[in-house]
Amino acid sequence: MTQPQPATEPSPPSLRDEILAYYERGEEDARLKQGAGRLEFWRTQEVLRRLLPDAPARVLDVGGGSGVHAEWLAGDGYEVELVDPVPLHLEQAARLPGVSVRPGDARALPAEDAAYDVVLLLGPLYHLPERADRVRALAEAHRAVRPGGLVVAATINRFAGLHDGLQLGHYFVPSHRARTDAYLGDGHHMHAPDDPLFTTAYFADPTDVPGEFTEAGLAHEGQYGVEGVAWLMGRVEEWLDDPERREAVLAASRRIESEPSLLGVSGHLLTAGRRRL
Q: CA–CA separation, 183 vs 161, rounded Å?
């Protein structure tokens, strides 16, 4: 008589090879520390500092990369654990004081239930083209955060690539224009070996993200355009270099951050929700 076989756990999801290769180039660590990328960094920091509970609190930084945000969170007094699937990122983040790291995927978090006050996903949803995977990642955040705890996820807006391509001139290259036009309908940016600018990704419609939060069991609370319209203006790097003008740019972006008619103009969007009590 054949004996029943014990159930086996499904294999954890893995990062696509082309995405791993893109981030192993080591460019992510500097992206938010220089040039126009500083606007994304400072605005993300500003919004999170308003939303997060007072320190000390336990924060899980999922897909936290090299620890660009984990570093200042730890400096603010939070207990920060960073999870990332890229070995180079883990090596870089492990050097930061007050930050613990471990490998893992947003869709299968190496985390206990209700163990954190805050779960951040400031990158994973960029690279999950299928809705089921994005909801799965948000459901994992829901599982890992305590009742009443905060979940904040970043998405790239649907037309960010079009706007960026026009600003930098890439859109005038026929092959790049064809790739850009192809994802404007469904947001699926496909990897192309001859395109070094980005990799497999999903560019979200802002109006769709709250529904994904709800499907994952989270109570949606708000959305915040990160860069507003300032990132599309040619002199933004110069303005960010000037402390007085930088504060004016940040204040202007803050004024329109939740204006529904302008959410999709920003390059990136933060969506916040909570696990219900």
A: 9
Query: What are the C-alpha distances in Å from 56 to residues 48, 80, 116, 150, 277?
Result: 15, 10, 11, 14, 21
Q: Model-level pTM? A: 0.94
Phi, psi of 118 (to 5 degrees): -140, 140
Partnered with residue 269 across adjacent β-strands are 155, 225
Given the DSSP bridges, would you call strands 268-275 and 218-225 parallel, antiparallel or unpaired? Answer: antiparallel
CA dist., res. 61 & res. 99, Å (int): 10
Same domain, 78 and 48: yes
- Residue 217 located in a structural domain: yes
Domain boundary residue, one of 149, 176, 203: 203
Q: How far apart are CA 96 and CA 78, in angstroms?
A: 13
Q: Is residue 11 part of a domain?
A: no
Tokens of 82: 């960073």
Residues 269, 146 within the same domain: yes
Q: Please report where in the chains the tokens 């499907």 appear, as a residue.
A: 215
Per-residue pLDDT reduced to its tens digit, 166-220: 999 999 999 889 999 999 999 999 888 888 889 999 999 999 999 999 999 999 9
For residues 71 and 136, membership in a common domain is answered with yes
CA–CA dist 30, 196 (Å, integer): 17
Report the CATH number at residue 244: 3.40.50.150
**What are 201's strand-pairing partners?**
189
Tokens of 35: 């040039």
> Considering its fold, how many domains does the chain have in total?
2
